[in-house]
Design brief:
175 residues; mainly alpha; 70% helix
Amino acid sequence: MTPPRWFSDHHLLASVARHLHAQRAAYYPRLVVEGRLSRAKALDGLRIMRTIARSWRAIAELRPEPVGAKDPDQGGAWPFERVQHLTVVARHARAQADAAEGNVQAADLADAIETLLWWETARPSARWLVDTTLAGRHQANACPLATADRAALARRIEQRRLADARKTRPLGVAA
């Protein structure tokens, strides 16, 4: 399967996820007051989209997953909830983009939301890739060379460079 547009632009995807959460935070209270959305569904929707936004921010910044991101009891969301909500949002965004022919921004937003949904079901996931990167960095930093006194190491390298420079003479200079 070919990766979707913007699959590698994690900062853009984090921004779109943050936008989707902000959009819900702005409109859900009004929908609850108007009786078009129950309070429980509004709170669930906000929790799930906030989790998606927090998770993508951590992915974009190459940070560990936020604590409790996969546990609704800790303010997170189950993976199936994330997929369900992004599926609905992606379908809605694509319908809006198709209805507004020529609106590049609407099409771009729909593409980005579909990319978020793609990553939710991709194997390996963006989260797994970031966790693997972090583990590799941790392992590299645990190397004795990496934990050595960097200033002392730099001095030794400079001393070696100067010693090597003294051993070699420019062409045409007698020893």
